[in-house]
Write a structure and sequence with these properties.
Length: 942
C-alpha cells in the first residue's frame, strides 16, 4: 500500500489519535480546544514520498522512515504542527473535513493546502485523521510574484534573526547577507554580495572562526547547511553567531575554576536535587584540609566528616538552614582521614536555577584549629587573670575611652563601695570618685596627659567612698591596646593608713625637731629667766595655744605667774599672784605626785565651785597643767590656757608639755648647781685629768682583753655550732648504717654489708678531717708548732697531691698542671705546703661544674729575690664580691655555695699556712665565671 501511495502526486499522511477523548461519542469543545495542553496525542502512521518532499524538500529521500511513529511537534516545523493540532481539534469537534493553508519555512518556500478527514475504524472504533497536502504555490502566484514573495519572505525572516546569514552558491560567490551579517563583518551588503566568501564551507559542519571587523576581532560560531531553490539550484547557507560573550564567559568560568582550585579555603559543591546532598565537587584545599581525595568523597554526603560527634550546636543550625533553603555560617568539629580533629569554619549558600528551584549548595570551609586553640588559651589566660584579679586586695580596673569597665575587681568594689554594675551604669565614674570639681578636673588632666604621652603614670590622690569618707590611694595607670581599642589599666592601692602614719610621723618629727630646738636653747642658757621665756614662747607657737605661762610657788604655797607667752595682749596675766586656799588645798598634793591635769571644757568639767571660779577669773575655757618638780621639791607649774573656746587636747600635746616641764625642772636644777659647779670646777678638773689618764690606760688594756675574749668566744660558738651540725649528720648516718648491720645484717648480701661499712668509714673520715682542720687552726693560731723543713722534688710533690685530690673528687674534672720555670727541688715545710695546695685544688674542683678544667701552674716570680708562685685557676661559681673580704674567716662560707658540702675552714687554714711560711695570697674572683688564686712563698734552693 505504501508503494502505491508514493506514486500519488499529492501528499498523503495518516495520523492516529491516542486519546480517550477521541473515543467519546460526545466531544466537547473544551476537550480539544486547548492547544497548549491538548487532550489527545497525534502520531504519524503513514506518509507518502510526495508529502515528505513538500514538507522537507526533495533531497530528503529517507525522511518517511524518520517521521513514522513521531508526533507532529517532534518532526514538523513548530507553526505547522500547531496549525495541524488546531484543525485536527476542529475536525474532531465538527466531524467534518477541515481545510487550511500554510506557508512553509525558507527551505522549501511552498504554500500548501492541507485537507483533514476523520476516519472511524469499524473493528476497534479507533479514530484516525487522513490528510492530503497539495502545493498551491503556482496556482496562487505567477513566477515573478513567487520570486518577489520568496525574496520578501526570505529577507524578512532572515533579517529578523540575530544570527548572521550568508547564502553562497555552488561557486562560492555570496548571493545574500542579512543585516546581522553586515554588522558582523562591518560592511554593507553591496560590498559583500558578488564577492567570494573565502571561508571553507562544508554542509553539516560547525566551526569557530575569528572575524576581523574594523581592527578588532570577533569570535563567531559558523554552522553550514544546504538549500535548493525552485530551479533546483543548490545553495550553501552559513549561519554565523557572535560568540564573543560566550568566549568571555567561558574564559571567566575557567578563571573562576582555577581560582577555586587554587583557593586556600576548602570548596565543596553538593547536589541539592538528590537525597542527602551528595558532594559533586571538592577543590584541592578540601583534600589538603581533610586528608580525603576527591575520588573518596564524591557522591557521599558530608556527615562522615563529623565522625560520631553528631550533637554539635553548629550541626543543628546547619540542618535547619538546609531545610529552610538559606545560607548559614557554623563552626564544626570535624575529623580528618587519619582521625585527627580540626575545627571547621563552614559557610554554605544555596544555588537556585532560573526557575527558582534549589539545585546546589556551595560550602566554603576554613581550618581554624590554630585560632580556636589560641582562643582557648586566651580564655584560659583571661580566666586565670580574672581569678588573680578577684583574689588580690588592690583595686584593678580595665576600661575604654567611653568609661566602660571590662574589669572592676572585688578589691575595687571594697575600696569604692560601688559594684561592677553600678560603676558601668554611672557613665562617668570619675565624678563619683572625685565629687569636688577641682579634683575632678585634675583627674581629667592626668588622663589627657596619659593619652598624649602614652607613658605610665603613678600618682597619690584621694577618692571618695560611697559612704562619703575619703581614702588616700596610690593610682597607677597604663595605656595599652586591646582588641583594636585603646584601653586603660589602673591599679588602686589603699594608702590611707600609711598616710595617717606618715602624717603622724611628720607631725611627730616636727614636734621633736621643735622640742629639740627648745631643749637646745634651754641647755645653752644658764639664765633662768631666759630659759623660762624660751620655753613658753616655743610651746605657745608650736601648739598654737592662746596662753602659756609658768607659775612659781613660794614657801607658803602662794605663787605668781613669772613668765608668759600670749597671742593677744588682752590675755596677759604676767606678775599676778594667787593666794587662794581652795587652790592650795586641792592641788598642792596632786602636783607633788607629778600628776598632769587637762580640762577640755571648763564649763562642763566636774570641778569644785571655787576652782571653777578661779579659772573663769583668768578667762580659761580649757587648760593643761603640768608640775615642774625635781626630787621632793615642787618648784612650779607649766600651764597652757585656751581662753576663747574649749579645746579637745591631743595626747601628743599633753606629752609635749610634760617633756618641756621635765626639761625646765632640769634646767632649774642646772642653774642652781651652776654656782657650786663653778666653785668645784678647778679641783674637779685636776682630779678628772689624773683619773682620765688612769682610766685611759686601764681602758686600753680592758679593750684589748675584751676584743680577744670576744674573738675567742665567737670562735668557740662557731666551732660548737658548726661541729654539732657537721658531726650530727655523719653520726646519724653511722648510727643508721650500724643499726641496719646489727638488725638486718643476716639478711644482707656481702655487697650490701660492704656498702654500709664503706659509708661508716666515709663519715668517720669526714669527721676526722674536720677535727684535723680544727686542730690545725688551733695550732697555727696558738703558735704551738715548729717548721719542719724538708727537700722535695717540687713537680713530683705537686703531681702526687693532684692525684690524691682527684681521687677525693668525682673524677669528672680535668686538672691541667704546668711547670713554667720552677726549680726541680725546693726545701720547705711539706705539711703546710701540702695544706695550701690540697685545699686550693679541692676548692677549685668542688666549686666547678663537671667536665670543666682546673689549671695549676708553678713558676718563679721576677722579683729581686725570686719566690715560688703557685697559681690556681677554675671556671666555677666564683666568690661574690661581698664575701671576698671575709672569705678567710673561720667557718665563713660564701652565699652562693648552695648545697655544696664544706666546713668553712679551708680558706682559713690556707691563709694561716701561707702566713706561717712567710708568703702572701691574692684572690681574684668573678661570680659565675671563676676564681684565680695566686700564692707567693719563699723557698730554700737546693
Amino acid at each position: 500500500m505504501q508503494n502505491i501511495l508514493d506514486y500519488v502526486q499529492c501528499g498523503i499522511f495518516v495520523l492516529t489519535i491516542e486519546s480517550d477523548v477521541a473515543n467519546e461519542p460526545n466531544l466537547q469543545v473544551s476537550d480539544v480546544k486547548d492547544q497548549d495542553h491538548p487532550a489527545f496525542t497525534l502520531r504519524f502512521v503513514s506518509a507518502n514520498l510526495t508529502f515528505v518532499h513538500l514538507i522537507f524538500g526533495e533531497r530528503s529521500i529517507d525522511q518517511t522512515v524518520d517521521i513514522l511513529g513521531l508526533q507532529p511537534k517532534e518532526c514538523l516545523p513548530l507553526e505547522f504542527a500547531q496549525l495541524l493540532n488546531e484543525h485536527v481539534s476542529q475536525c474532531l469537534q465538527t466531524q467534518q473535513v477541515a481545510v487550511f493553508t500554510t506557508q512553509l519555512d525558507l527551505v522549501t518556500n511552498r504554500l500548501l493546502s492541507i485537507s483533514l478527514s476523520l476516519k472511524l475504524d469499524s473493528n476497534d472504533h479507533s479514530k484516525q485523521i487522513v490528510g492530503t497536502c497539495q502545493d498551491i504555490t503556482t496556482l496562487e502566484l505567477t513566477k515573478s510574484q513567487v520570486k518577489e514573495f520568496n525574496q520578501k519572505k526570505f529577507s524578512h525572516l532572515v533579517s529578523e534573526v540575530s544570527d548572521a546569514f550568508v547564502v553562497v552558491d555552488h561557486e562560492g560567490i555570496v548571493r545574500y547577507v542579512n543585516q546581522s551579517a553586515e554588522n558582523l563583518f562591518g560592511c554593507k551588503s553591496d560590498d559583500i554580495i558578488g564577492e567570494t566568501f573565502g571561508l571553507p564551507v562544508v554542509a553539516g559542519e560547525s566551526t569557530d572562526i575569528d572575524i576581523l571587523n574594523r581592527g578588532s576581532t570577533t569570535s563567531a560560531e559558523m554552522r553550514v547547511s544546504e538549500a535548493m531553490d525552485e530551479d533546483r539550484r543548490v545553495y550553501v547557507v552559513a549561519s554565523l553567531r557572535d560568540i564573543s560573550e560566550r568566549k568571555r564567559v567561558e574564559k571567566s568560568l575557567q578563571l573562576r575554576e582555577r581560582a577555586i582550585a587554587a583557593s586556600s579555603n576548602g570548596i565543596v559543591i553538593t547536589d541539592a536535587t538528590q537525597p542527602n546532598n551528595p558532594m559533586i565537587y571538592v577543590n584541592p584545599s578540601f583534600e589538603r584540609i581533610t586528608g580525603y581525595s576527591a575520588a573518596e568523597v564524591l557522591g557521599r554526603d558530608c556527615r562522615f566528616l563529623q565522625g560520631g560527634d553528631r550533637n554539635q550546636i553548629g550541626l543543628l543550625d546547619l540542618h535547619k538552614a538546609i531545610q529552610e533553603k538559606r545560607e548559614c555560617h557554623a563552626v564544626l568539629l570535624n575529623y580528618r582521614k587519619d582521625g585527627t580533629p580540626f575545627w571547621n569554619d563552614l559557610y554554605i549558600a544555596p544555588v537556585f536555577n532560573d526557575h527558582g528551584d534549589l539545585t546546589n549548595y556551595i560550602g566554603i570551609q576554613t581550618d581554624i584549629t590554630d585560632q580556636v586553640k589560641s582562643t582557648q588559651r586566651l580564655l584560659e589566660s583571661e580566666e586565670r587573670l580574672r581569678t588573680v584579679l578577684t583574689s588580690i586586695k588592690e583595686g584593678i580596673t580595665f576600661s575604654d575611652d567611653s568609661g566602660y569597665f571590662a574589669i572592676f575587681n572585688a578589691g575595687m568594689e571594697n575600696l569604692t563601695g560601688y559594684t561592677f554594675a553600678e560603676a558601668n551604669a554611672s557613665h562617668d565614674f570619675t565624678t563619683f570618685l572625685y565629687p569636688d570639681r577641682a579634683e575632678h578636673d585634675k583627674a581629667l588632666q592626668r588622663l589627657q596627659h596619659l593619652q598624649e604621652t602614652g607613658q605610665a603614670m603613678t600618682v597619690e590622690t584621694r577618692i571618695c567612698h560611697r559612704d562619703g569618707t575619703f581614702k588616700d590611694v596610690l593610682v597607677s595607670t597604663r595605656l595599652m591596646a586591646y582588641k583594636g581599642k585603646r584601653m586603660y589599666l589602673s591599679s588602686y592601692y589603699d594608702i590611707t593608713e600609711r598616710k595617717k602614719v606618715e602624717t603622724q610621723l611628720r607631725y611627730q618629727g616636727e614636734r621633736e625637731r621643735l622640742l629639740n630646738a627648745i631643749l637646745l636653747k634651754i641647755q645653752c642658757e644658764l639664765n633662768l629667766d631666759q630659759i623660762l621665756a624660751i620655753t613658753v614662747k616655743e610651746a605657745q607657737e608650736l601648739l598654737r595655744i592662746d596662753r602659756v605661762v609658768i607659775y612659781q610657788f613660794q614657801e607658803d604655797w602662794s605663787g605668781a605667774f613669772v613668765v608668759e607667752a600670749i597671742n593677744d595682749p588682752a590675755l596677759s596675766i604676767l606678775g599676778k599672784t594667787i593666794n587662794d586656799a581652795c587652790f592650795n588645798q586641792e592641788n598642792i598634793q596632786k602636783y607633788q605626785n607629778r600628776s598632769i591635769s587637762s580640762i577640755n571644757d571648763v564649763d562642763l568639767a566636774d570641778l569644785s565651785p571655787c576652782h571653777k571660779d578661779l579659772l573663769q577669773c583668768f578667762q580659761v575655757k580649757a587648760n593643761i597643767v603640768v608640775s615642774i618638780a625635781f626630787g621632793d621639791t615642787l618648784w612650779g607649774l607649766l600651764i597652757a590656757h585656751q581662753c576663747f573656746a574649749p579645746r579637745q587636747w591631743e595626747e601628743f600635746e599633753i606629752d609635749l608639755l610634760r617633756q618641756l616641764a621635765n626639761h625646765v625642772a632640769i634646767a632649774i636644777q642646772q642653774v642652781k648647781l651652776f654656782d657650786r659647779v663653778q666653785d668645784l670646777n678647778k679641783n674637779l678638773e685636776r682630779q678628772v685629768a689624773d683619773r682620765t689618764q688612769q682610766l685611759e690606760q686601764s681602758l686600753s688594756q680592758i679593750e684589748r682583753a675584751l676584743l680577744k675574749e670576744k674573738e675567742l668566744n665567737e670562735l668557740k660558738s662557731q666551732f660548737i655550732s658548726r661541729a654539732s651540725h657537721e658531726f650530727r649528720t655523719p653520726l646519724a648516718t653511722i648510727q643508721t648504717a650500724s643499726d641496719l648491720l646489727r638488725n638486718y645484717g643476716h639478711k644482707m648480701s656481702d655487697e650490701k654489708k660492704l656498702e654500709r661499712i664503706d659509708k661508716i668509714q666515709r663519715e668517720v673520715k669526714g669527721m676526722t678531717n674536720l677535727l684535723e682542720e680544727v686542730l690545725i687552726i688551733g695550732k697555727t693560731e696558738s703558735g704551738r708548732f715548729e717548721l719542719q723543713l724538708e727537700e722535695i722534688n717540687l713537680e713530683d710533690f705537686c703531681l702526687e697531691i693532684i692525684e690524691q685530690t682527684k681521687l677525693l673528687g668525682n673524677g669528672k674534672h680535668q686538672v691541667i698542671f704546668k711547670n713554667t720555670n720552677a726549680p726541680a727541688k725546693v726545701t720547705i715545710d711539706t705539711k703546710f705546703f701540702r695544706q695550701i695546695i690540697s685545699n686550693l685544688l679541692s676548692n677549685a674542683i668542688k666549686y666547678s661544674p663537671n667536665a670543666s678544667e682546673v689549671t695549676f701552674t708553678i713558676s718563679l716570680t721576677s722579683d729581686h729575690v725570686p719566690k715560688l708562685l703557685l697559681e690556681f685557676q677554675d671556671q666555677g661559681i666564683g666568690i661574690p664580691l661581698i664575701d671576698q673580704e671575709k672569705i678567710f674567716d673561720h667557718f665563713y662560707r660564701a652565699h652562693n655555695v648552695g648545697m655544696i658540702i664544706g666546713t668553712g675552714l679551708g680558706m682559713a687554714i690556707i691563709k694561716n699556712s701561707v702566713d706561717i711560711l712567710g708568703g702572701t695570697i691574692q684572690l681574684n674572683s668573678v661570680e659565675n665565671k671563676g676564681t684565680t688564686v695566686k700564692v707567693k712563698l719563699p723557698y730554700l734552693k737546693e
